[in-house]
Write a structure and sequence with these properties.
The chain is α/β, with parallel strands linked by helices. The protein contains five helices and six strands; from the N terminus they run βββαβαβααβα. The protein has a four-stranded parallel beta sheet. A two-stranded parallel ribbon has the order 1-2. α2 links the parallel β4 and β5. The longest helix is centred in the middle third of the chain and has 20 residues, at 97-116. It is globular. The two termini are 13 Å apart.
């Protein structure tokens, strides 16, 4: 299993956390979601490999539904352009009380949408320091808790080998 980190100094902890490899997010075309325009542009461009953290920057939920940053149109774009949707454990770990509950609820909704539209999902720590990093088994358990049916992290040492997005899925 692999992991993604937001701090290049954390790559040296690959073996300590039982990962086959740890990648720095800035080395690839990985976009952190911000607002609707940023998310849509990232999914429409064919250059982006992964979009992550889209739950974190939503201000307020709507009256009748959660504003999780992902909808059926964006899921179809991600599927069409073969872009992965990433879920950051660091976002949950570094949030507090009600904010954590809101982020988890939005993640569950986004996982539901990704499962429904068969969008590939990636789970990662996206750690900024060593205290945010988690073991590969912890990340898989978190992914299963969110409802992920398949995770695209496994056996990813061939990353960017074929068509610049050679991610192999686990079953």
């Amino acid at each position: 299993m692999i992991d993604f980190v937001a701090n290049k100094n954390l790559i040296k902890y690959t073996k300590d956390f039982d990962f086959s490899n740890i990648y720095f997010t800035k080395d690839f075309e990985i976009v952190e979601g911000r607002d609707d325009n940023t998310n849509r542009k990232a999914l429409e461009s064919g250059k982006t490999v992964m979009l992550y953290g889209i739950e974190k920057f939503r201000v307020k939920d709507k009256m009748h539904y959660k504003d999780s940053g992902l909808n059926q149109v964006l899921c179809k774009l991600a599927k069409k352009n073969n872009i992965k949707i990433g879920f950051s454990f660091s976002d949950v770990l570094n949030s507090e009380d009600k904010e954590r509950a809101v982020i988890l609820g939005r993640m569950v909704q986004n996982v539901y949408l990704c499962n429904k539209y068969k969008v590939d999902m990636v789970i990662g720590s996206f750690a900024k320091d060593v205290n945010d990093m988690r073991n590969d088994k912890d990340l898989i358990a978190f992914a299963r808790l969110l409802g992920m049916r398949k995770i695209c992290n496994e056996k990813i040492d061939t990353f960017f080998k074929e068509n610049d997005i050679g991610i192999i899925m686990i079953k």
